[in-house]
Amino acid sequence: MDSKSLFSGLFLGIVLGGGSALLSTPISGQETRSMMKQYDLKTLNKKLSRKGKSAVQEWQEAATEGFEAVDGLTQEMKKTYSRYKDEVEPEVEAIQQQVKEISDSISELNERIRKESE
C-alpha cells in the first residue's frame, strides 16, 4: 500500500467529514457553547451514568435471554439426538444387514453363474 495515497485519503476523509459536520449541525457554535455552560458537569455525569447503567442492564438482560435460548436449543438438540438413537439407529442397522444379505446373495449368484458357464 502506498503511504502517500493513505495519507491523502485520510486527509480527504477528515476534510469532508468536518465539512459535512459543519453544514449539518442544527444550531450554531455559539448556541452550543452556551448550552454546554448551562449544564452542570456533575448533573450531566449522573445522567450519563444512569443511562450507562440502564444500557448495561439491557445488555445483561439480552445476554441472559440469549443464554436461555441457547440452553433451550441445546436441550432440544439432546432430545432430537436421543430420539435419533432410539428410532433411527436400529433402522440403519437393519438396512445395513439387508444390504449385506443382498450383497452376499449377489456374490453367491455370481459364483453359480461362473461355475455354470465353465
From TrEMBL:
It comes from the Bacteria. This is Gas vesicle protein.
